[in-house]
Every structure is written in structure tokens, then in C-alpha cells.
């Protein structure tokens, strides 16, 4: 049953990872606050946290979504669930090996785990290639999504190089590619494609608005910011960051965020997307202030993007796809809506941790515990669905 549809195994693994990879990180945060002794890390813990989140949590959801949705974008038949088996086995086994390598502190095992993750990544990308580049149908959304996956493979190669050689430049390249050439483009592509579509089906007299130039601009901003970040020059990206903020906030307005609040399962997507404009705005302000010699905000912009945008959009989109593809009504119940709102609180708390230095450690711990408090019940709600037949008796 797990392989009855491609989203099932990918979403299941991603959901488990939202908790599994954050438990040791919360342990680390509690240790920093002096509450208890911390775990031993063979690498700087912040780098492991970034690697886990960027390549070990969100991509499972991305692969599950794209293997489900991209064929429909291209007018092709649905993907059989078995197509996800080999990529999924490689991805899951690779991350388990990596986790064991962290415990025993063996660089070779860490590299081997990441290499297996890369193999699963390549298998999934190979499956999606003829879908994205279907003759006569190679549109902006599928092509941009596939290119982002290709960039992610390069980012994994950088992490493997770091595991084998220990060069911090390789780690910086891996993080920068993952943030700016992988996840940000993917989430923008999916939001640009799906939010107007879902809004038109849920709101009366709604005219879908989806200009390609806006997505191209946002993609260009992300690619340029990523290139500068790899060169340790991200502070110089502030003019394009502010352009990206303006475009993203304008799209939120054009997509009628306020009207979406009447439909919680739709509002979850709109509220998640709004964080993109906030994140770009914070990046732009941070870079502009650095030009004048003022260094502030720390990692607040980064977490506005990762927790505020990636995480809230993931909870919203995965909840929606899970309901729709399990034959359940497309309605966010009270628990799901409360968890979605609470996750915005977690994101705000993490951002404020770098805005209010006096409360930094306390707010970090609260944000970490809040993450587990949100995703724990969410995972418990979703996991049984992936192991049961559809409620409406249909296949998939």
C-alpha cells in the first residue's frame, strides 16, 4: 500500500524526518542554554542542521509532489507508485547511513550515506526528465523545477566533497546551492503554479493571475543571490533582494490573500507564500545596512525563508495533497488549521531570536520546541493515511 502512489512513501519519509532530524537539534539548543549536556557532533552542529533541513527533509516532499503533479501539468498519465520505490529506498537508506556516521564519527560513512542519497536523487530526477522536457510541453514550471533538482545534485556533490576533505568552502557551496538554487526556486515554482489554480477552484469570481515574468524575476533573484552567497558576497545582493520582495508581496496582494482567509486550507498556502516577500525584504534590509557598516539581523532573514516560507508551505501543500489523494474532503479541520497557525508563530519566534539578542537563547529553544510541538501531531495524523487504502475506494 505504501507504493500505491508515489507521494505516499516520499511524504511518509519527509514527515518522519521533520521530527527525526529536529530532535537532536533541539537537544543541541537546550544544551546551549545550559539545561543539559549536549550531543557530540563530528561536524559543526549548525552545518549538520542545515544539511538535514535542506537536503534531508524538504526534498522528500518535493519529489513526492513533483512525481504526482508534474505529469498532470504536462497532460500525461499519473505516475505509478512503483516508480518511487528505488529512489525512495536509496534516499532513506542514505540518510540512515549518514545518521549512523554522525553517531560513530566516521567521515567515510558520512560520505557513503550522502552518495547513496545522491543516487536516489539522480534516479528520481531521471524519471522526471522526460516529463519536464516533454516535446512541445517544456514549459517554465516543469523545466525550472527540474533544473532546481539538478542544482540540488551539485549541492550534494559539494557536501560529499566536504565529508571527504573537510574544506569549509565545499560546505558553504552546498548550503548556498540548497537554499538558493534548489529549495527557493522549487517552492516559488510550485506556489506560482498552484496557488492561483487552487484559489480559482475555491473562491467565487476569482480570476487566476499567473504572469510568467514574475516567476522569471523571482528565479533570477534567487539564482543571483545564491551565486553571491557562494562567493561570500551575499551582502551585495540587497538591490535584487528588494526587487524580489516587491514582486513577491505584490503577488500576494494580486492573489487576494485576504479573501483566502475564508477557506482555511487555501489560506494556509497564501499565508505561507507571504513569508517569501517578508524574507526577501529582510535580506534586502540586512544587506543595505551592511553596506553602511551596520551588521544586524543575523540569521533572521534565513529563517524567515526556511521556517516561515518552506516549512509553512510544506505543511499546507502536503496536507492538501494528502487529503485529496486519499479520497478525503479537501477541508482543513480544526487541528490542521491550528497547527498551521502555530507554525507561523514558530517562524516568528525564530526570526525574533536574531532581532532580540537579549532573548536569543530562550527564543531559539522555544522555536525548536515549538517545531516539534507542531510537527509531532501533524506527523501522527498523516502517517496512518499513507499506509491505508484511499477512503473513496479508488486506486492510488
UniProtKB/TrEMBL annotation:
Transmembrane segments: 9-27, 47-67, 88-106, 112-131, 143-164, 170-192, 265-283, 303-323, 335-353, 365-387
InterPro entries on file: NnrS (IPR010266)
Domain of life, per lineage: Bacteria
Keyword vocabulary terms for this entry: Membrane, Transmembrane, Transmembrane helix
Pfam families associated with the record: NnrS
Protein name listed in UniProt: NnrS family protein
Phylogenetic placement of the source organism: Bacteria, Pseudomonadati, Pseudomonadota, Betaproteobacteria, Rhodocyclales
Amino acid at each position: 500500500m505504501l507504493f500505491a502512489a508515489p507521494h505516499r512513501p516520499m511524504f511518509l519519509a519527509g514527515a518522519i524526518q521533520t521530527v527525526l532530524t529536529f530532535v537532536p537539534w533541539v537537544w543541541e539548543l537546550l544544551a546551549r542554554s545550559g539545561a543539559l549536556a549536549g550531543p557530540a557532533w563530528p561536524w559543526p552542529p549548525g552545518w549538520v542542521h542545515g544539511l538535514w533541513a535542506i537536503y534531508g527533509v524538504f526534498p522528500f516532499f518535493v519529489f513526492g509532489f513533483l512525481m504526482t503533479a508534474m505529469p498532470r501539468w504536462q497532460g500525461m498519465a499519473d505516475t505509478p507508485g512503483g516508480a518511487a520505490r528505488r529512489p525512495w529506498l536509496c534516499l532513506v537508506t542514505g540518510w540512515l547511513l549518514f545518521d549512523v556516521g554522525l553517531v560513530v564519527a566516521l567521515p567515510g560513512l558520512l560520505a557513503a550515506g550522502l552518495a547513496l542519497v545522491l543516487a536516489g536523487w539522480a534516479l528520481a530526477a531521471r524519471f522526471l526528465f522526460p516529463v519536464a522536457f516533454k516535446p512541445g510541453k517544456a514549459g517554465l514550471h516543469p523545466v525550472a523545477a527540474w533544473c532546481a533538482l539538478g542544482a540540488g545534485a551539485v549541492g550534494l556533490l559539494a557536501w560529499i566533497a566536504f565529508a571527504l576533505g573537510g574544506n569549509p568552502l565545499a560546505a558553504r557551496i552546498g548550503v548556498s546551492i540548497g537554499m538558493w538554487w534548489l529549495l527557493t526556486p522549487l517552492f516559488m515554482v510550485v506556489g506560482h503554479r498552484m496557488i492561483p489554480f487552487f484559489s480559482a477552484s475555491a473562491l467565487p469570481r476569482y480570476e487566476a493571475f499567473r504572469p510568467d515574468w514574475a516567476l522569471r524575476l523571482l528565479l533570477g533573484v534567487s539564482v543571483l543571490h545564491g551565486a553571491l552567497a557562494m562567493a561570500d558576497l551575499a551582502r551585495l545582493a540587497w538591490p535584487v533582494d528588494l526587487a524580489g520582495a516587491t514582486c513577491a508581496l505584490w503577488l500576494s496582494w494580486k492573489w487576494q490573500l485576504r479573501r483566502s482567509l475564508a477557506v482555511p486550507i487555501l489560506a494556509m498556502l497564501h499565508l505561507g507564500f507571504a513569508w517569501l516577500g517578508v524574507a526577501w525584504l529582510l535580506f534586502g534590509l540586512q544587506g543595505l545596512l551592511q553596506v553602511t557598516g551596520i551588521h544586524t539581523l543575523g540569521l533572521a532573514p534565513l529563517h524567515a525563508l526556511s521556517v516561515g516560507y518552506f516549512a509553512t508551505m510544506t505543511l499546507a501543500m502536503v496536507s492538501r495533497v494528502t487529503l485529496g489523494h486519499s479520497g478525503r474532503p479537501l477541508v482543513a479541520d480544526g487541528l490542521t488549521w491550528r497547527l498551521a497557525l502555530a507554525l507561523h508563530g514558530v517562524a516568528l519566534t525564530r526570526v525574533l531570536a536574531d532581532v532580540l539578542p537579549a532573548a536569543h537563547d530562550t527564543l531559539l529553544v522555544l522555536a525548536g520546541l515549538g517545531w516539534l510541538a507542531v510537527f509531532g501531531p501533524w506527523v501522527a495524523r498523516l502517517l496512518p493515511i499513507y499506509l491505508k487504502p484511499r477512503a473513496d475506494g479508488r486506486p492510488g
